[in-house]
# Entry
Amino acid sequence: MEDNKMAFGTYKEVVSARATDKQIQKVSQDGGIVTALLTYALEENIIEGAIVAGDTEDAWKPEPTIAMTPEEIIAAAGTKYTFSPNAIRLKEAVRQYGLEKIGTVATPCQVMGLRKMQSYPFATRFVADKIALLIGIFCMENFPRDSLRTFVEGKMNSSLDNVNKMDIGKGKFWITDPEKESGLALKETHGYEQAGCNICLDYVAELADVSTGSVGSPDGWSTVFTRTDSGADIFTAAVDAGILETKPMDDVKPGLGLLEKLSNGKKDKGRKEIERRVNMGLPSPF
# Structure
């Protein structure tokens, strides 16, 4: 683990995994880890509800949703490559819903914010401390919804309203609509991402309880890092219960080498942009 700590942060174990539930496999992005873990935690009363990126009538504009049933969690499955400010519902989940144990899923920057809320000695700490399971997702960059529409419709010749799945892999941004699957080289999406993504140094959600993403694992599987004691306990319990199945990372392709390359690449790129901004007299959070 020490060799990879600089790239991946502190972790207890890394494996390739997927949900065993066929319904979850059908609707989820890759291995269905987020959906499977949240539903398992809810059914086992490890959490009382989950804040997830729910769907809306407006295409690919996720709405933070407080899910109280496994069905509501499953309905929110699948990655949306635009921002869902899940933390905005945290106070409501605690104060209005009365939840004492909350699960949520977050991008690396959101995970950082939630951990800062837990560390801060006033006000928000006593809301964020209700988080019992924080799952982080790998993230290189995130796009404003209007940017998604611009390059999906302007560069990929598809209507955003008709797209039923998005994915990033093999160096391309992929969309699937009822007529076709098409990919756009990731270099063609640069300049459309959120500005903050360019100074973010975290690809693998290093501060989460459990972090997961597709890179490193085969199609239909996800790479999973267990990072905290509670995250490891919940993940292990889900595996023991048959909710998840796992394979050693050494047994799968492309393996950790690609993930390490991408994670270090994001750190290097972010540090260069931070240095550039500081040299221009601009503020930087790092």
User: Anything to note?
Assistant: The CA atoms of residues 175 and 181 lie 6 Å apart. The chain has ten helices and eleven strands.
